[in-house]
Amino acid sequence: MKPRRDSDVLLSKFGHKELLFKFLVIGDYGVGKTALVRRYTEGRYTSNYKITIGADFAIKTLDWDPLTKINLQLWDVAGHERFGYMTRVYYKYAVAAALVFDISRIATFQSIRKWLCDLREKLTLPDGSNIPVVLLANKCDIPCPAISTEQIAKFCKENNIGAWFATSAKENTNIDVAMRYLVENVLKIKFDGGICESVRLRDKLTIREHTGCCKL
User: Fold this and answer.
1) pLDDT tens-digit profile of 48-79?
2) Which residues fall in a coiled-coil region (predicted)?
């Protein structure tokens, strides 16, 4: 008999399976992370969100198929610089991440490099590979974006990010699609044996060459 995994609750008597996955939602403050999480988990939107202190999380339950239920914990990690030292704690047990920037503010896109490096230096799958990541170009409802689709696609290609989506919490654009993309990738890794009890935090930061971490 296989040992029970922390991420699973197996209802074997009925042939049902219930899974629990922790996803990170990271990026600079003010890019709309909280709005995205609330829209996805609660189906509502408001522009009056307070700055996240440390981290907050919300739960979304998906009836993935007739025999599988997936509970997603979406961790909304504070984007303000003064909270950055705590990311190692918040990353623990996460199996995927959404990196968010504001498509109308180029500085938030430039900061994605920092967030991606932080994530990949601190968190890996048990085999040492990177967890699945999706890039969200948020606030796509705002006209005249500051970053072109070519720039975004180039960044994803150079940094091995499998997909990006233009999202809007206000108009509920592409949020479900982006999260489904992450779930599908996590399930593929899981059932290929890549996720056992959890991913692991790196024991120590890997020293990389200046240009060897992420590219922008």
Assistant:
1) 655 555 567 799 999 998 889 999 999 988 76
2) none
The CA-CA-CA angle for residues 50, 88, 78, to 5°, reads: 10
Please name the residues in contact with 156: beta carbons below 8 A apart, sequence gap of 6 or more. Answer: 135, 162, 163, 164
Strands 123-124, 200-201: parallel, antiparallel or unpaired by DSSP? Answer: antiparallel
SS3 content of the chain, % helix, strand, coil (to 5): 30, 30, 40
Counted residue by residue, the chain has a size of: 216
Full-model pTM: 0.81
* DSSP-assigned letter for residue 51: P
Task: Report all structural domains of the chain as residue ranges with CATH numbers, in order of start.
Answer: 15-201 (3.40.50.300)
Q: Helix, strand, or coil here: 11?
A: strand
For 109, the 3-state DSSP assignment is helix
